[in-house]
Amino acid sequence: MKHVIIIGAGAAGIMAALAAAGQGASVTLLEKNNIVGKKMGITGKGRCNLTNACAMDEFVAHTPGNGKFLYSAYGQFSNENLLDLLHQWGLETKVERGGRVFPQSDSAIEVRKLLYDRLCRVGVHIRLNEAATAVQRWGDTFAVRTQAGQYEGDACIITTGGMSYPVTGSSGDGYGFAKSLGHAVTELKPSLIPFTTKETWPHALSGLSLRNVEASLWKRGKMLASQFGEMLFTHFGVSGPIILMLSAAAAHKKQCQYPMQLRINLKPALSKETLDQRVQRDFQKYIRKEAENAMKDLLPQRLIPIVLEQAGIDGRCQVNQISREQRQDLVDSLQALTLTITGTRPIEEAIVTAGGVSVREINPKTMESKLTPRLYFAGEVMDIDAYTGGYNLQAAFSTGYVAGMAAAKEE
Fold first, then answer.
1. Any idea where the RsdA/BaiN/AoA(So)-like Rossmann fold-like domain is (predicted)?
2. Strand, coil or helix: what is 120?
3. Which end of the chain is more exposed for a tag (fewer CB within 10 A), N or C?
């Protein structure tokens, strides 16, 4: 019987343990936290966005960080395979907007308890509150040291996650283990993370959410990426779904350097001409009002002074005093409200880490190291990352499954 040691009991580590044990291997699962799947508990705002219901090709398209590397893993363990297992184990699920899949109960705790129960049922030796401190290979044996002692096994799977949300256990330990075993680690960057801005006015709008807007990132007059949907102003800058998606795009642009420019189209459904006509109608309706009161049908009240200021219009100016040129500037401001992006929040606040153990040194069919036989990697510790929507968790489950199956296979 092969003995497999797995470091990290997140989504990838749990699935690797279940797969390996299911093949008859003796499995030891080491976890520094007092529970398994701690980071899973914060996905989907605590509801656990398990996966997405889209086709697997879409998973690759939604993975800017080496998505093509995952083709084989997804072929071996797809979203349908994952859901079949979860349903078989008694978890009811539902599909929401954008194909996001959640437990019917909206409870990440239920998912964690279910997976912990499955680990116990298949005989995985779970070691909680036991962080790995070093990984070594002695001939055909792997030795993993912890604060409590040492474990030896025939194979080792590193599933320690990235650098984001260290409170959940993802503090970058796996990168050190990989380097000590000869692996290269690519540059680590925050992804799916809010932006900070040079301008201070977002602070005055803190908490204001905008829906159905388009935000685009620009550098030296060239558009790098754009997203349509919902965003949020914060005390430090901007956040929300489309901002997080833009941060992922920025993390994968070569020579990505801040500052950048963010342009917000507040009325993307309207052409410039149609929007101008809409503004004229509102101005006619409120002909005797001041400008800041004449736009209440068009924008949230707190946003109006900001848009007017960017257009160079005094909010106390009477509507009938606004020239055609000023009105054109206002339309431009409505469709390109501009902010200077100075950077992102700290990597510890990122949802995922861009960068990690180089996938060039990992066999995509087995997740085995090309440098060190019987050493495997799975999940976010590798240089793979995706957009929000269940794609990152599925990547963790799929690569964990593949690594676990391969590690358990007898030579």
1. 3-405
2. helix
3. C
Query: Quick check: helix, strand or coil at residue 392?
Result: helix
Q: Are 292 and 105 in contact (CB under 8 A)?
A: no
Strands (E), 311-365: 337-344, 352-354
Counting DSSP H helices and E strands in the chain, the numbers are: 13, 19
pTM reported for the whole predicted model: 0.90
Distance CA 253, CA 82 (A): 32
Task: Tell me which residue has tokens 């201070």.
Answer: 200
State pLDDT tens for residues 335-382: 999 999 999 999 888 889 999 999 999 999 999 999 999 999 999 999
Contacts of 391 (CB under 8 A, 6+ apart): 52, 59, 62, 63
Decide if domain 3-189+353-408 falls under CATH 3.30.930.10.
Answer: no
- Structural domain spans, the chain: 3-189+353-408, 214-344
